[in-house]
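Subject: Ammonium transporter structure
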Amino acid sequence: MSADQLAALETPAWLDTGDNAWQLTAATLVALQSVPGLCVLYAGLVKKKWAINSMFMAFYAFAMVLICWVIWAYKVAFGVYMLPFAGRPGPVLTMNEVIVQSTLPSANVSQNFPKATMIYFQFVFAAITLILVAGAYLGRMSFRAWMAFVPLWLTFSYCVGAYSLWGGGFLFQMGVMDYSGGYVIHLSSGTAGFVGAWWIGPRLKQDRENFQPNNILLAMVGAGILWTGWNGFNGGDPYAASPDAGVAVLHTNICTAVSLLTWTAMDIAFYKKPSIIGAINGMITGLVGITPAAGFVAGWGAIIIGICTGIIPWISMNIAGKKTRIFTHHVDDCLGITHTHMVAGALGGFLTGLFATQTGSYAFGLTTDGGAIMGRGKQVWLQIVGALFIIGWNIVWTSLIMAFIKYVLRIPLRMTEEELLIGDDAIHGEEAYCFFDDVSGLVPTHTTEMRAADMMERIHRGSNVGKEHIILEGRDLEQGVSESPSHVKENGHTDDEIKQD
């Protein structure tokens, strides 16, 4: 190989090192949203007995999607035209294929970084979509059924939406706007969560009545990773370290903050108390709602979207989700993915049609003049058409996939009743916060245990010598003393008695 050929491989003329560096960074931020972000968010929000299972569903999906992605799925979503809604499947595993300049042949656009970067960037979006779907199925879906569901839904649902809107398919050609996945990711995952939850059936009655989060601090860690990781989620979709990428990051954070505050205000108004779990939901709906609009709308548009995503999904979750029979008896959406992603995603897409600006559209590389505020009311109808296609496709294909798993593969969609009662230990042989090993070893005698206890008691007494004792002031004691003098200590002795001792 000549020196010129070597130089062309190392620094080809088409390569923009800044764009490549930002795209890989953005992809890594999105990956962190899934692992560990959603893993620990889910593990903290569910009951203790489901923490391992919830994390593992996300962890498995992340790995399985990558393998499917490079063997056939990437080209279905971003490859050469095969159908108006799907590219021709095939692998992307040879060096000569991944080191060349990235192009989207059906969309007739190219990027200033290698195809390998694009493959990885689009993979993390596909992976997080499946992990979001899992949020609706937690606490009762068979893990074996989930293992079959992931590659099937990726192929027949996610890739279709991605090609139709991003890869050059018919919705792309029509002009439907989806900046970073409000439809492709959130509307599709929310719809699949709703439909799949109906197929799988509800959790145990006792779990639905008492499903307290087992670790809110852990959930907050996941929520924080999700929010900050969204900078790569929306900031990476111009496919360049461009001015519009900076705009998308800024507007993403503005909308999210407004939505969180609005949701908190709704909690205070109706429940008289601010809820940290409610604030997390408001954060998520803000992130979802701004995703289709991030670089298209102005800052004031981001604020309006944030207000809407803090109110409408709140009503959907707290009123419709708790009062209507379809949610109380038929669709048990464990973490409310229907409300936080389906409702918020559709809402964000609709508002994009209203508030998209001409400047934002041009900066992103579109030739349209924006939305209704720019005099293009047609864009609102295009957004509605795009939403209806994604919803309808996912209703049909999620149902077909669930039926295929249940009736053809003969894999039960639900865990057994015994597994539902026990949880992680029955499914995985592990528990979230403790492990027990059945091993042989020296077993101390009862006499030895008594001596050790006596030793610990002497050590404990010695460590307390010279320490101040806590004064009990005005405290009712169980022994019937209604009020103790201020000089009486916790051990019942006065200062004088202690001095005499």
